[in-house]
Fold each of these.
Amino acid sequence: MFQDQRVLVTGGSRGIGRAICLAFAQAGAKVAFVYHSRQDMAQSLVEEMGGGAALQADLRSPQEAGEAVDRAALALGGLDVVVNNAGWLQKCALEQLTPQMYRDTLDASLTAAFFVSQSALKYLGPGSAILNITSQAAFTGSAEGSAYAAAKAGLLGLTYSLAKELGPRGIRVNCLAPGRIDTDMIAYGTPQRRAQWLADIPLARFGQPLDIAQAALFLCSSQAGYITGANLNVNGGMLMG
């Protein structure tokens, strides 16, 4: 499906990002991914994919984001797909949320996607795709996660705006909103809290990273060639509409 397509994934070394990288690689794509700090996990992912490029960068910096995109394009010979998956969730009560924590969360979960998309534009052409990974928190809010929810809601607006602007160039832009996915992002939940979360999911299970990766493949493929400016909820039914 993605034979010789060139794919860049941010936040790729673990969790959902790792599953997305593996899914694209298994579908025949050449994959580069950006990671922030876990070099050990990044190296193991390259080995598991059987190749690819692992790029360390702090995407909160416009300079580092631009350099990472250029390095990915150089390593892959261009870009066809960009998946903005990088994000940062800090659970923190409003009273304790410092201005720096707020800025860091927005920069990692929203502004980085803008920097990467802007930098990638010179490599993208007709048939290319940008996919932004948002969250159900964009719709439901998140107690003690206000900065994260605000950033993910902003990512929806960015997606819709880029879809309108880039559509005439043949570049599709969509977003995908995971629900409760069984990664370290929900590891803070106590057994009682996890039971409450599970009770709100009609399919009666937490999602797996592969559930998100498979949806990402579809939205970035030619099978979704007439889909742009859309959000796909992958949440087991916890939020409908």
Note: The mean pLDDT is 93.
Amino acid sequence: MQTVPITQDGYAKLEAEIKQLKGPERQRIIKAIAEARAHGDLSENAEYHAAKEQQGHNETRLKELEDMFNRAEVIDVASLSGDVVKFGAQVTLVDEDDEELRYQLVGAYESNVEGGKISIVSPIARALIGKQTGDEVEVRTPGGNKSYEILNVKYS
């Protein structure tokens, strides 16, 4: 079984989402199914079919999250240090247009580009792994190659 790296914050959010899906969300769907059944003929009952579809989506998502939860390897980013980019690093970059970017390398579940968190398996993260302050990296993107210079690497 392959482990999945995740930060402590990501692990807590994952656990919270699982509890939400198992508890309140599952109960809401069960109630919706019961109400739809009360309307009679199930063969032409759109509310019933919609609720059953929601139940399927909920259970599928729950299984995905539980699998990730069971394979999670929680990494305490605060205990890491150094100037080499690895999981958990907060990296400050400058691109070819002198635009400064800040990203933290996190697990796939936690990634949120708008929030400055990129997946460890993303093209830019893979290019950054093992590099250090002052290094230049080139990343192949769908829009073409982009060059970046690493300005700072920190862990906190």
Note: The first strand starts at residue 4 and ends at 7.
Amino acid sequence: MIKTNQKGKEQGIRRNETKNMILCAMFVTLIAAGAFIKIPIPVVPFTLQYLFTMLAGLLLGGKLGCLSVCVYIFLGLAGLPVFAQGGGIGYIFQPSFGYIIGFAAGAYVTGILANGKGNPGYPRLLAANFIGLGIVYLFGMVYYYWISNFYLGTPIGLWPLFLYCFLLAVPGDIVLCILGAVLGKRMIPIIRAERM
């Protein structure tokens, strides 16, 4: 009887790990697809990547959400053209690469904050999304400033940085935060039930 129970537990753990791997792979694919759904604006293109990295955190939790984004980053740096402007190790010298790093940190924090409670409501989900968005922009703007001023030799001042890398891009991302909260509220119970 004990062996049967042990076997059942092991199978349950393996099944759960398989589901997690499938969900992570699905989000890697969605994030890559989101890079090509873009609205051209100056300096930093607006894409749907943030929506999918945010949802990875909301639906998979902080660790698995971050893992999904890290796998996406690894694939892009390995040479697959999954970033908004291609791929390859040289992409780290793109001024916008900081936003991609921010996606991983943002997904982790969003997932931790949103899933800290059994069944999160809209206020909690929105707060998690906006904090995650703030982290993405912090990483993105600091990296953009640093790489432009100290590596590429194309200096950018603080006001143009704030204008092009925040003000012009953030309205669309605010809409994505609201959409993410709505989708998260509906999908979190479904994903949790599937992972049981």
Note: The mean pLDDT is 89.
Amino acid sequence: MVKVPLPEDREEVLITNLPSETFDSRQIAELYHMRWGLETAYETRKDRLQIENFTGTKPILLLQDIYSTIYISNLAEDIIRDAETELDEKEKNRKHKMAVNRTLGIGILKNDRIYILLETDAKKQDRLFQQINEDISKNLVPVRPDRHDHRTKGQLAGKYSNTHKRAY
């Protein structure tokens, strides 16, 4: 366990299997920070895409659910990154940098992707895909750096939680 100092005279405790002779607490904190993107990707797959919510019990059905969830995750991330790149090029005069709402983007994609798969006309498929891109691009949230909220501990911490909303 490694204690890492945080602003406002607080500290964070990280659990690691890295040897203390090789890495000091500052280096472990940097490695933890570098890994944060991977942790949020797992959180997205587990909470918003509900990768553990299987539709069957046979191994082939479990694999199908996992592969389709990863496919939707990658497709959503690709669309969202394209939308954010386009947004960065367009908008320069806002108070805060804007980002696409990932939860709503995933929900739109999961609900509307089936219509593209069922459509036989290629031109209509392209229009439907463009519509999905536009719908995802419209749902923006401000990015506020260095914003920290005090976490509630104890019995009321998970009550009426707003942090795990379904994407669909």
Note: The first strand starts at residue 2 and ends at 6.
